[in-house]
Design a protein that fits this description.
This protein is α/β, with parallel strands linked by helices. Helices cover 23% and strands 22% of the residues. It contains 6 helices and 15 strands. It has helices at 13-22, 44-59, 118-132, 163-172, 254-260, 265-268, and strands spanning 2-6, 28-31, 63-66, 75-76, 82-83, 101-104, 107-111, 138-142, 176-179, 194-197, 200-204, 215-219, 224-228, 233-237, 247-248. Strands 3-2-1-12-13-14-15 form a 7-stranded mixed sheet, with helices on one face. Helix 1 runs parallel beside helix 2 (44-59).
Length: 275
């Protein structure tokens, strides 16, 4: 299986356009939170309508999973906790979302919500405990915030990760955790897009402006994880031990050559249409 992984698109529509175009080349798309942007001038309800349209386009092409991030929280629960109520509605599109456990071949994915208080945190605890009882050998979590005290949550002056996630990982020891949230971690000194917490691989896609977004590709057949940004293309061996730095991509796989050929519609416009 080959998974395309993104996070933190923050209602950047050219990046969503690229994601829909790239989905043809992958068996699954994993969206690790923050599809919306609370700082945008666009009303959050309008953002939800547009993002769900993109998600429907993705779901028509491949399997899709999405977890909520802190920018996706548009309502409050009766207990007063911020929640992403809209995320659950994407199930009608056949998309796995917050609280779902999905078996794809011999890999189980657990999609975890962003927690704002004790009630949702307790729901995550119950979800992971129930999934642990039936987990296969390979178990992947999708959780917007990366674990604390890891290079994948380093912000330059302090760590911005989730301390509770550290405990969940220690207790259940999943194969890997896919996250985002701390945009700069892969790009700064002492930060990284990958790490290992015990035996668990942990990842943070990072964020860049423009098109395409920063993204990862997980290839379970070759046991490699790739990370690609505007200026870098790297990979690591998931079957080996943690080694730094990652290896540069020197021979592009077929899928990378294919997504590199996705045209930018803005650049493709004729000069007369440039306004």
């Amino acid at each position: 299986m080959r998974c395309l992984i993104v996070a933190d698109l923050h209602y950047t529509l050219p990046q969503f356009d690229w994601l829909v175009a790239a989905a043809d080349h992958f068996d699954a798309v994993v969206f690790a939170g923050d599809a919306l942007d609370l700082a945008s001038i666009v009303d959050i309800r309008a953002q939800i309508v547009v993002v769900k349209t993109y998600l429907a386009l993705l779901a028509a092409k491949t399997r899709v999973m999405i977890c909520s991030g802190n920018h996706d929280l548009e309502e409050r629960s009766p207990e007063g906790e911020k929640i992403a109520a809209w995320i659950g509605t994407v199930r009608e599109l056949g998309i796995a979302s917050d609280g779902d456990d999905l078996l794809v071949g011999d890999i189980m994915f657990s999609v975890c919500p962003w927690w704002d208080g004790p009630r949702v945190k307790a729901a995550i605890t119950r979800q992971l405990e129930a999934a642990a009882a039936r987990r296969p050998e390979r178990w992947i979590w999708v959780h917007h915030a990366p674990p604390a005290n890891s290079p994948v949550s380093w912000g330059g002056k302090r760590f911005f990760g989730d301390t509770e996630l550290e405990g969940f990982i220690a207790r259940h020891r999943p194969t890997m955790v896919i996250s985002g949230h701390v945009h700069q971690s892969p790009f700064i000194t002492n930060g990284s897009w990958f790490d290992r917490v015990g035996e668990t691989w942990v990842f943070n896609t990072g964020r860049q402006p423009g098109r395409p977004p920063t993204y990862m590709v997980l290839d379970t057949e070759t046991q490699r994880a790739f990370w690609l940004s505007a200026g870098q293309a790297e990979w690591i061996d998931l079957a080996g031990r943690l080694e730094r730095p990652a290896q540069p991509v020197t021979a592009a796989p077929d899928w990378l050559r294919a997504v590199d050929r996705i045209p930018d519609p803005f650049l493709a416009r004729p000069a007369a249409a440039a306004g």
